Amino acid sequence: MRTRRIFLNRLDPAHEPEDAVVVIDVLRSFTTAAYAFAAGASTIYPVETIAGAFRLQRRLPDAVTTGAVGGGDPIPGFDFGNSPSALQGASLAGRPLIQTTAAGVRGLTRFRHARALFAGSLVLGRATALALLDFQPDEVCFVITGEWVDRDGDEDLACADYLDALLHGEDPDPERYAARVRDSDFGRRFQAGNNPNLPPGDLALCAQPDRFDFALLASRSDGRLQLNRSRAGQESPLPDDSRVAMGPLRNGLRLQES
Questions:
Q1: Is residue 255 very low, low, confident or very high in pLDDT (cuts 50, 70, 90)?
Q2: Is Ion transport one of the keywords UniProt gives this record (predicted)?
């Protein structure tokens, strides 16, 4: 299995990944998404634009909205910001959720034609590796979304490195990667505690390796991108309603209890 990394903000269109793609957004899109499912969300609809999110909400009046603009400020009129701590105590009780963010969601829509598309974060680390091994791709491409002109994106690179080690049969210490999340450029902004939209509690939740036992698999239904929980060994919808044969797990990976 080959692995490689590409950066969302400096893509090379000549080398478009087509097999398995993991769009990584640790701080905070896909950590928030994981906590939304833990709070009871039925499905997450990633929508790239704010206007598109409000249009979809009019079609799905039971849906709740979560998201932020670049830098982390909440979107006016949305039910929640892009904050896992805000969702941790919420009860979504089977309701769909519409998510709009400047990095993670944009990455998912950019690579929506991949054969298998996952939303990755550290809290989903081992579960995502297991789901990838089930898929048996020839190549896994990690899309780093957190690198900006003023941010190193090392929180996402750390997650990619963790997944890469797991996929190649290693048993790394997850705390090494959690420390990199906390020490990344963006992580230090949460630690500073001077921006109410970047609370330290969010950083603590984002830097919990393997918190959940499910991966987030993207698929398309009625032309609309959606995220659903997927566990290794389950047959799950892939883009364009295709299927792949699920093979045996390899490398002896085991999930921590959540």
A1: very low
A2: no
